[in-house]
Specification:
Blueprint lengths: L25 E2 L5 E6 L2 E6 L4 E6 L15 E6 L5 E11 L2 E11 L4 E5 L8 E6 L5 E6 L2 E6 L5 E3 L8 E3 L4 H7 L5 E3 L5 E8 L5 E6 L7 E6 L10 E7 L5 E3 L10 E8 L5 E8 L4 E8 L5 E8 L15 E2 L4 E6 L6 E6 L5 E3 L7 E8 L4 E6 L8 E6 L7 E2 L8 E6 L5 E8 L2 E9 L4 E2 L4 H8 L7 E7 L5 E7 L10 E6 L25 H4 L2 E5 L10 H5 L8 H13 L5 E11 L1 H12 L6 E5 L10 H8 L2 H11 L11 E7 L8 H12 L5 E5 L12 H16 L6
Parallel strand pairs: 38-39, 38-40, 40-41, 41-42, 42-43
Antiparallel strand pairs: 1-2, 2-3, 3-4, 5-6, 6-7, 7-8, 9-10, 10-11, 11-12, 13-15, 14-15, 15-18, 16-17, 18-19, 20-21, 21-22, 22-23, 24-25, 25-26, 26-27, 28-29, 29-30, 30-31, 32-33, 33-34, 34-35, 36-37, 37-39
Helix pairs in contact: 5-6
Length: 722
Amino acid sequence: MRKFTPCLLVLCLLCTVAAYSQAGFKWTSDGNGYYETEGNEILRYSLPALTKSVVISKAQLTPKDSANPLRVRSWGFSADEKKLLIYTNSKRVWRQDTRGDYWVLDIAAGSLKQIGKSLPASSLMFAKFSPDAGRVAYVSGNNLYVEDLANNKITQLTKDGTAKIINGTFDWAYEEEFGCRDGFRWSPDGNRIAFWHMDASTVKTYLMLNTTDSIYPFNVPVEYPSAGEAPSPYKIGVVDIANGKTNWMQIPNDPVLQSYVPRMTWAGNNTQLIIQHLNRKQNESNIMLCDVATGKSVSIYRETDKAWIDVGGYVEGNLWLNGGKEFLWTSDKDGWRHLYRIGRDGKTEKLITRGDFDIMGVAAIDEPGNTVYFYATPENATQRYLYKTKLDGSAAPERVSPASQNGTHTYTISPNAKYAQHTFSNYYTNPSREWLTLPDHKTFNGDNVNAAVAKADKSKSNTDFFKVKTVDGVEMDGWMVKPDNFDPAKKYPVVFFVYTEPAGQNAKDQWGAGANRMYVGSMAKDGYIYITIDNRGTPAPKGREWRKCIYRKIGQINISDQAMAAKEVMKWPFVDTSRIAVWGWSGGGSATLGLMFQYPEIYKTGISIAAVANQLTYDNIYQERYMGLPQENMEDFVKGSPITYAKNLKGHLLYVHGTGDDNVHYNNAEKLINELIANGKQFQLMSYPNRTHSISEGKGTTAHLNQLYTDYLRMYCPPGGR
């Protein structure tokens, strides 16, 4: 159900970019150029001249016994850039293709050889060079291995790995909700490896049923801790490469409720780890230093929240400052998400990003220049701009993105913070990309963004951004796409697109706003008004209270806000109140059900896809983070679940779900079906056999679903002005 959003927190620096994710564009180590994969070759571009040269040719990527080069999925250089680690023949593991084969190219010697060759094909995960590039470590079969590149000797560092005992990677829930996949870290000196060990044997198994791939159906088991169930117990181990001995860190834990360690890395030296430890409710975070020799851990920074502590994904940069004496962290403890500089002992703390605004992510940290670049949008929560401020907190934040470019900006900044690849768009301006220097923001390969802005014609867009204020005094942002040849004297049907939960924001001023890729044809041409609105609880950068007031009230606050906003929209003279439809996917599917069931007088037609009908069926990390523990506040789970209100259905409902959904399980559909049947409610159901949460597998699936969606909408919420 989790919707992908950009990384938000500097705490994410505790993650490491794995080899599998190093595809395409990559900076050179000095920041004065970049590498890019083109035509199965790796090229180097020098900046600012943008001259290019072939660094790795097809011939170098061709094994001796093959006529064709390797099909490179991703790649990464060793620290000295003398060797190349190549990832190929990849296979998907849940969301990402994180399992495959790895090859090492010794550039000087011209040798290309496969590592882990004695292990099963496409079984290696997260291979990484040691700091001296003499060895490569990887995971296979949930065990950790290290291979000596000089003599090809493979050493198995863990030996207890099974389908349920996991070393160096994670279970389903950690991957889905914490973004954790790569589960091991080389020490800076290359003598040790720190890794996660997880015991999923205590987690109950959800049995999906595959009825299509053989004559006899068979089970597909997933270790899946639902809300109220304890998570997989974990350990953090440090294994000595020389002798294979593992020392386990002594991390406090609740033996019944358990806890989480979603972030871990070496603490800027070879003797300590720094971890983030969360309690089961995820409302208490402790940043801890662990002594790898003794295993003892000590909390250096503690934070609590009445709702939850945010945990994000990876943000490039340097966690440690001042020679390892300080580190960077984010917190919204003062009501806004800000960046703090904290002493290694946790006793000193300085606010860096001052002001009444949320930082939306860190773009780069330039310690020599005493500067941090970050994203923020103090005046318009639908947009995003690059800002900078002093790392020592001595200056007010300063906007870097030009004032004439209103919309959404993205910057890929070089390690030396001298260059950036800049991408811009807004809802009426096509995406454009340019190269520029920092901190002056001057382009050197054409003024592409300004040219795109000058060329764009806002008057030709059917899309408008608006604000709506409800009877509860809640002001929300939204966008609206009006029909072609709009006649304000006529009344048009409205289709609301919803998500509504803490994992996603819809109302963003960027290219594609207002598009509906589910609809076959043009909604504007056919005569629909298409609207999205972001309610409280969505991650819009409007402060802590906006984002976290939904705690224990998913299915209540978000549903009420959407319905009250819809009532305001229905007051517009060109809206046909008899033709109001709503649709959404995943958390948006849940919201669609909630709106159809709780406010049947508003929403006459709904299309709900892959929805959570009963919150107790969804995974514990996500659901408990935002709702608490069902053992303590079961009434909130009941009040927040759409199935509770199914008896109120009056309009036309199309419910869609994949039977092979490992994320939002198909039992949600069947529980809801039973409740609707019990209450005599007619509806339409479309089950897609053996399809996952994306309902994208199989020939013709996407086209079939899109046509189904379009036909249903046209039938029960007819388009056109009247």
